[in-house]
Specification:
The protein is of the alpha/beta class. Helix content is 45%, strand content 15%. It is built from 29 helices and 19 strands. Pfam families: AAA_lid_14, HTH_8, Sigma54_activat.
Length: 642
């Protein structure tokens, strides 16, 4: 007989508490793991409302405990810290196998005046009752403990999820707990997130241990081949299987014991020596025809590659820092919330997530795309396609490629297309909002399946590239108008970066000086920029954004008389003299007016900001939904909250 799953709603658990007060443990109302925990707690003499004295390490003991568990801390700390930055409003705990909190990240929750969860506290079930870290250690599986399922705290303001982390021998290294507000409507989202965390860390352990060996990644979906759900197989130089991660056993349909020691050729169906020659310099995609279906694989040579989810997230911070100078320079004058999103996009691109750039014409979307490509190490080519610059009849062939003789005028031997050209690198789909609807459907399939079929050809060509899309149009508005596919939008909008207009950026005077110096160096000219002119340039509205500013400065430089030492307003063309003549005085007049009514305006700004923050909280931090409710754009909401 199949056991009925318990309804884990607040009302049901409150019924369970009522039964317990009457002396009966209602296991039929509880999730099986929660029921077992409540039973153990009762046997330990713990009851709802009991106020335990929780063991807590002092500073010296905590330092010694961290030294003892240095391996866990070094493995998990970078990744957990990064996730905590993304999940503001949550608390993450790194916990040892004896249920001691090694480190706390993010928000600090208090269950009551007496109980504040933090580093050094011990969450053993015998002291603290039912809680996610203790239960995950006992069950050796990911768990969710909703607010009132915490036996000792029926009115707990938080819920928590936890997942254990196992080493290659199956021993528990520790676990990760994620605590969040109890009224969240979908706690399973956090459970999946913590499972992804431990999965990424277990991948990293495997790859670190076998970094001098060949490693095969396997998955049923090409799109998920780099995800934490992919399986890993370690192979020695002779082609013998050394180890099989648990996820790989599931995909391959065989347990690890039966696979270890066998030649990999039995799985791959190809000569090992030929595969080694093919993959000795870089990873290669493979199609694996196995009993029961087809799998995708990627064979990686020893010590020459970075694992996808495990190391791309946790170990790329030094890489990002080393290659972020151009990105930092571009976002230096941006409003801080928008600059933060640009840096988040760099981290997301490293993991293989797509990035969408939105901004007015001339705001520098292509420059930002190149900076993001460089921020992930600049690996592979950077390939761009402007979807608005080609007629509809040519976009398809240019993007997907074509076979020989596919149409009149097709080049001999065919053409691989931009997607194939970008393999191993980054593809920029500029002005994606202008792509015809029919091609949007085909692009969506390619991005999902990671396989492209050129026009007039039957071959399926695997692709592996990072994707950045860009548009000056509001894609969400085009989705609502039926002019852009909703499913493609959500496929592209992994992280959305809204580029500010030039007039919205601060420190514009400094930016103009820096750009002027770079142009002087490029053209081999020493020419000073007059301070008054610089102020006028900074005060101008720049409707054409960066493109207009760049054009203005470069034309002024190359057109200046050879004997000129300092560029002033009078040295510019009559057109630009007219444009800039009133910019500084208008700005000063506005500033004077604002100073006269500063107190009133500030009060209004404070009220507006408070209303915006309340709206954002009501929509659980969803900026798009909050902006829609307020009737403003996302960039306006970001700017006014900065």
């Amino acid at each position: 007989m199949i056991a009925r799953a318990a309804l884990r709603t607040t009302s049901v658990i409150r019924q369970a508490h009522e039964h317990l007060r009457r002396g009966h443990l209602p296991v039929d109302l509880l999730d099986a793991s929660i029921g077992r925990s409540w039973q153990r707690c009762l046997e330990h003499g713990l009851h709802p409302g009991h106020q335990p004295d929780l063991p807590r390490l002092n500073t010296l003991e905590l330092r010694q405990h961290r030294e003892t568990h240095r391996r866990l801390l070094e493995l998990a700390d970078p990744l957990v810290n990064q996730v905590a930055e993304d999940l503001r409003g949550c608390q993450l705990l790194l916990v040892t196998p004896d249920a001691t909190v090694l480190k706390s990240y993010g928000r600090n929750f208090e269950l009551s005046e007496r109980f504040r969860i933090g580093a050094g506290i011990n969450l053993d079930e015998r002291s603290f009752g039912t809680n996610a870290p203790a239960l995950a250690l006992i069950e050796r599986a990911p768990v969710l403990v909703n607010s009132c399922e915490h036996l000792l705290f029926p009115d707990n303001p938080v819920s928590c999820v936890a997942a254990p982390l196992f080493d290659l021998d199956g021993d528990c290294l520790g676990l990760i707990d994620l605590t969040f507000e109890a009224d969240h409507p979908r706690p399973e989202i956090f459970l999946r997130r913590v499972q992804q965390l431990t999965g990424a860390l277990e991948q990293r352990l495997f790859l670190r241990h076998y970094q001098q060996r060949w490693v095969l990644q396997v998955h049923a979906s090409l799109a998920e081949l780099d995800a934490v759900s992919s399986g890993l197989v370690a192979i020695n130089d002779e082609g013998v299987i050394l180890a099989v991660a648990p996820q790989a056993s599931q995909w391959l349909g065989q347990d690890a014991v039966s696979l270890v020691g066998r030649p990999i050729e039995a799985l791959l169906g190809s000569s090992w020596s030929a595969l080694k020659r093919q993959c000795e310099r870089q990873s290669a995609l493979l199609g694996l025809e196995l009993t029961g279906g087809r799998l995708f694989g990627r064979l990686n040579p020893p010590d020459q590659w970075q694992p996808a989810e495990a190391l791309r997230i946790a170990a790329t911070q030094p890489v990002l820092k080393a290659h972020s100078s151009r990105l930092d320079s571009l976002v230096k004058g941006w409003p801080s919330p928008l600059a933060r999103e640009a840096r988040r996009a760099a981290r997301a691109l490293t993991t293989g997530l797509p990035v969408l750039l939105q901004g007015e014409t001339g705001t520098g979307k292509e420059q930002l795309a190149r900076a993001l490509h460089e921020s992930v190490g600049g690996k592979g080519p950077f390939v761009g396609l402007n979807c608005a610059a080609l007629p509809e009849s040519l976009i398809e062939a240019e993007l997907f490629g074509y076979g020989e003789g596919a149409f009149t005028g097709a080049r001999k031997g065919g053409y691989g297309g931009r997607l194939v050209q970008a393999n191993g690198g980054t593809l920029l789909l500029d002005e994606i909002g202008d792509m015809p609807l029919a091609l949007q459907a085909r692009l969506l399939r390619v991005l999902q399946e990671r396989v492209v079929t050129p026009l007039g050809d039957h071959r399926e060509v695997p692709i592996d590239c990072r994707v950045i899309a860009a548009s000056h149009r509001d894609l969400e508005a085009r989705v609502e108008a039926g002019e852009f596919r909703e499913d493609l939008f959500y496929r592209l909008a992994g992280v959305v970066v809204e580029l500010p207009a030039l007039s919205e950026q601060h420190s514009l005077t400094e930016t103009i000086r820096r750009r002027w110096a770079a142009l002087c160096q490029r053209h081999g000219r020493e020419l000073a920029l007059d301070e008054t002119l610089c102020e006028r340039l900074a005060a101008y509205d720049w409707p054409g954004n960066w493109r207009e500013l760049e054009h203005c400065l470069e034309v002024a430089l190359v057109g200046a008389e050879p004997e000129l030492v300092t560029l002033t307003l009078e040295a510019l063309s009559p057109r630009w003299q007219r444009k800039l003549a009133g910019s500084l005085s208008a700005t000063r007049s506005t500033m004077t007016t604002e100073e006269g009514t500063e107190t009133g305006h500030q009060a209004l700004r404070d009220l507006e900001q408070a209303h915006m923050r309340r709206t954002l909280e009501a929509h659980e931090g969803n900026v798009t939904a909050a902006a829609r409710a307020l009737g403003v754009s996302r960039s306006t909401l970001y700017r006014r909250l900065a």
